[in-house]
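Posted in: Structural Biology > Protein-Ligand Complexes

Title: Requesting predicted complex, iron/sulfur cluster in pocket

I'd be grateful if someone could produce the 3D structure tokens for the following input. Sequence and ligand are given below.
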Amino acid sequence: MINILEFTLERLARIFDQEFGKGRFHAHALYRDIFKQGNENFFVSPEFLDSPRFAKALKGKVSVAPGEVVKTVDEGELTKFITRLHDGLEIESVVIPMTRHNTLCISSQVGCKMGCKFCETGRMGFKRNLSISEIVGQVYNARHRLKKDVKNIVFMGMGEPLDNFDNLMGAIGVMNEQQGFDIALRHMTLSTVGLVPGIERLARLAMAGLRLAVSINAPDDATRSLLMPINTIFPLAHLKKSLINFPLPRRGVFLFEYILIRGLNDSPAHADLLADFIHPLPVRLNLIAYNPVKGLDHESPSDDQMHVFADLLSAKGIMVIKRWSRGRSVAAGCGQLGRNT
Ligand code: SF4
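-- Reply #1 --
Done. Output follows.
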């Protein structure tokens, strides 16, 4: 069975050519109907009505399988949705309304191996990687099943995207396809815990426009290793070296994420060390107030602590954006996917 969501138009055309002796014309029609319009009854489109024998040959051989949306949870305009996959496993995605359009936060794995201590998904353990079509299917479901006008993608849902490198790159290629979803690379942000080999592979691809976000969360190895076990394998100095060598576009910046946790990484000394770590990288820092996770001892910072920490960094010339995570009550904030509210 050919799952259309797995392919760019070029690849689909080649498969049609090989399998059925017909290529671009019908692949194009199919692609437009499915990706642009969400029309899964594509055999009634004029191109197929004119080629009934080919339509018959395709029947039962092609499918659109984005997974079934089994639950949606709303908080204001924010929507978390749960998709059940072919093997019964479930993943979560979040539609986040922005000023002019929606951003979709996408999962790349079922569960996660990274085990970050502040994260609900990390506590689930790892089940499996998502396929290209399961990653792309989240956009399909958001746009065509939930009717959300999604323009931006952030790979910040369940899983570490760079740990599923090949399928992630395949999915980015499909989402980027002009004849399909047509989402520009500059509208996609890939968020990593700092998996250095993945960052180095990504650097070699030099995908102009794709934005890289890195979860930092602590400016010293001792605290970071406590929060993020990956730091014991790729400590901060190693991570920084990979970022220094990363080919940013002119005037491009890294997005750094720093979850502020009361009493753990929120002192003026932490702010100083963080500024040292950032220098001389071009960085926009998202300072995120920790979201309480059931069963974990960490506490959220007060609003005052957020302001003081941000001011210390701003005074050193670092661009800081403070975020009080949205979606707290539906477990759709950073590090909370996997709770299945
Ligand atoms: S924060 Fe991201 S990388 Fe870390 S455990 Fe959670 S999902 Fe995995």
